[in-house]
Design goal:
- The chain is mostly helical.
- It has two domains: 126 residues, Four Helix Bundle (Hemerythrin (Met), subunit A); 118 residues.
- Helices cover 72% and strands 0% of the residues.
- The protein is built from ten helices and no strands.
- Helix 2 packs antiparallel against helix 4.
């Protein structure tokens, strides 16, 4: 935390989101491009929330950015489903859904929100020392929340508990990655990335199971849907074991 200021970090995050948006709108069917845009936008939203008191920006800006992120959710879920099916025995089973197109107005709404944020940042003047203190407070707050939520993961946790743990891991990671150096007592970023990836894979299996489960009653696709659901549940259990092992190691090393 030697060189970064709140204003510099905010502008850097906004620049990344704009760059990802530009690349995604060229080909929104590319799941990797859409994923990069969603990550960049989510990082920006989390940063603005963590430093809300420091930056003093209108909440409506963050609200519009959240809406833009939400608009991409259905497309992202369908892309994840197709990727899973392509690497499974059910590729030609007919249980997959069509990938919807993104609303063309999304980019106009995002550009408008980004421009408004850019203008609002012109009035921000926060020094490094204040930013450092705010960063430490935010990191400690995120860490306490993460520990509480990870402690709630049991042998068979609820979908809500897993979701809250995944979000906490993700938000702490984003915060730590925006800093010039890792504060004392924080888990290694690499360890957070591994746990986030596993919890994300668990979430994907839950979303896919919710989509395939109703198809079990379908006359033509029921058998394939049933087998797909069973496979997803087995993968879910394997991933949960991995997540619990990663959780146990999270605070043991900094690497």
């Amino acid at each position: 935390m030697k060189k970064t200021t709140a204003l510099k970090a905010a502008r850097r995050s906004l620049k990344r989101a704009r760059k990802a948006a530009l690349e995604t709108r060229r080909d929104s069917s590319d799941h990797e491009e859409l994923h990069r845009f969603r990550v960049a936008l989510r990082r920006l939203i989390v940063f603005l929330r963590d430093y809300d008191e420091l930056l003093g920006l209108p909440e409506s800006i963050r609200s519009k950015l959240r809406k833009a992120l939400k608009e991409t959710g259905a497309v992202r879920d369908a892309q994840v489903e197709r990727l899973w099916l392509e690497h499974s025995p059910f590729k030609r089973s007919g249980i997959g859904r069509e990938i919807p197109a993104l609303d063309k107005g999304l980019w106009r709404r995002f550009d408008k929100a980004a421009a408004r944020l850019d203008r609002a940042l012109e009035d921000v003047d926060i020094g490094r020392r204040t930013f450092r203190k705010a960063s430490l407070r935010a990191a400690r707050r995120r860490l306490r929340r993460l520990k509480r939520r990870l402690a709630g993961l049991k042998a068979r946790p609820s979908g809500r508990a897993l979701h809250r743990a995944r979000i906490s891991v993700k938000h702490l990671r984003y915060l730590l990655e925006s800093l010039d150096e890792l504060p004392d007592g924080m888990p290694a970023i690499a360890a957070l990335m591994r746990l986030q990836s596993t919890l994300g894979a668990i979430h994907d299996r839950e979303v896919l199971t919710e989509h395939f489960a109703p198809l079990v009653r379908d006359r033509e696709r029921g058998a394939a849907a049933y087998e797909a659901v069973q496979r997803l549940r087995r993968e879910w259990r394997t991933l949960l074991k991995r997540a619990n092992a990663q959780r146990a190691l999270l605070f043991q090393a900094r690497a």
